[in-house]
Write a structure and sequence with these properties.
By secondary structure, the chain is of the alpha+beta class. Strands 1, 4, 5, 6, 8, 9, 10, 11 and 12 form a 9-stranded mixed sheet that branches.
């Protein structure tokens, strides 16, 4: 997707979060119609979510069938017509809290005015792949809706203490309590925006959806439709100073690369240490100096450490900053994958597993391939890379806790 702003697109003068008329499920237990974000849902998760409730939001965000985008549009329309989904009576910003064992996060959901990254208002930190953007664009343009919020971080924001009753108060199966308050008072909305205006927001989760928001905006304006709801995108903004995020790693599985071959090739450029048990290997990975990677599969575990400095230096791009070149995902993308293993870290070659090293190793064993277990990046490093105008390689970060999908939706017609 092009990054340069075009003259016909509006240029915000700061971080703007507009109230909107949210669309919410009118069901007895709202938890049962929610889901994780679309890209964290496996094929096996879909029937489990639908077992919770036939109107689970997964029908909208991950439709199936040959005409799946049209099916999502028709399902959305049918649920609005039947009263399964009901628009709120007036525009609001929504204060959203997640709380539970080891979890506490509070932020505000609204219509984020879209800004070119070059303006330094909304900072992406990851590259995007064309496939997911095309998929989300087809869904958004067909449904004319934002069905789940993206997740952004900023620092030192407004007081979001709520003194009235929430419009949603529910507990999901993982034990997390989700509460949503509608903030409709114009003076309170103005105060939130005044506090946000001069902030910079880092995209924590939703890079493909933010790229989709901007592409949809370009297309609608190119079609001569001018100002409209496409100039905004549904977003959750969280004050990371008040609620520090949980940043986890995203692991890789390479089905086409047998573990023995991956290990043998690695020995030409890395020190490789063998382990019989995953727990012992993970502890060694955690203790190792960066960059380090743990390879795993059916035959055991192998820790890669201490790369040959000359090979590493020759592999890393000269036009990148030293900070970028030191990222473990950059080393994997630029050195290990292409130079050591002769392949690219792309969506066709590599399968992604969020957080769970055991699941990654199990998938590698089933596919007779190799799992690559990574340590998480630090929040400060990610922010520094983004502020320097660079992007970390794809699927480098998994920020949490992620907002639950289905608590509040946004349709262009109602907004």
């Amino acid at each position: 997707m092009p990054d340069m702003a075009t003259p016909e697109l509006p240029v915000p003068d700061g971080l703007v979060l507009r109230p909107f008329r949210g669309v919410r499920f009118a069901v007895e237990d709202p938890a049962k119609v929610t889901s994780p974000p679309y890209d964290l849902i496996s094929d096996s998760d879909v029937p489990e979510l639908l077992d919770l409730h036939p109107n689970n939001v997964v029908r909208l965000i991950l439709p199936t069938g040959k005409e799946r985008y049209g099916e999502a549009r028709d399902t959305l329309a049918a649920w609005l017509a039947s009263g399964v989904l009901v628009p709120d009576p007036e525009p609001a910003l929504y204060v959203y809290e997640q709380s539970g064992p080891g979890v506490l996060q509070r932020g505000v959901i609204g219509d984020l005015m879209l800004a070119d990254p070059s303006l330094g208002i909304v900072l992406p930190h990851e590259d995007v792949m064309p496939g997911p953007v095309a998929d989300r664009l087809a869904l958004m343009s067909t449904t004319q809706a934002n069905l789940e919020p993206i997740f952004l971080l900023y620092e030192n924001g407004p007081d979001l203490t709520m003194r009235h009753e929430p419009v949603v108060d529910t507990v999901t199966g993982d034990g997390v309590r989700h509460r949503l308050w509608a903030l409709t008072d114009p003076s309170s909305i103005a105060a939130v925006n005044a506090a946000l205006h001069d902030k910079r927001a880092l995209i924590a989760d939703g890079h493909h959806r933010y790229a989709t928001y901007r592409e949809l905006q370009r297309r609608e304006r190119a079609a001569g439709r001018g100002d409209g709801p496409w100039d905004y995108g549904l977003a959750l903004l969280v004050d990371s100073a008040a609620y520090p995020p949980d940043l986890k790693a995203i692991h890789r599985v390479i089905p086409a690369l047998p573990l023995q071959e991956a290990t043998a090739r690695a020995k030409g450029a890395w020190q490789v240490h063998d382990f019989d048990h995953l727990g012992e290997a993970l502890a060694a990975l955690e203790a190792a100096d960066d960059p380090a990677f743990l390879l795993g599969g059916a035959e055991g575990f192998h820790l890669m450490t201490d790369p040959d400095p000359l090979q590493l230096a020759n592999a890393m791009p000269a036009d990148r900053s030293p900070r970028w070149n030191a990222l473990n995902t950059a080393v994997l993308t630029e050195f290990v994958m292409p130079k050591v293993w002769g392949m690219r870290d792309d969506e066709h070659t590599v399968r992604i597993v969020h957080h769970d090293a055991v699941a990654a190793v199990e998938l590698a064993a089933r596919s007779h391939g190799t799992a690559v277990i990574l340590k998480p990046l630090s929040v400060s490093h990610v922010l520094a890379v983004a502020e320097g105008g660079e992007r970390v390689p794809r699927k480098s970060t998994s920020f949490g806790p992620k907002p639950r999908t289905g608590l509040v939706l946004r349709t262009f017609a109602i907004d």
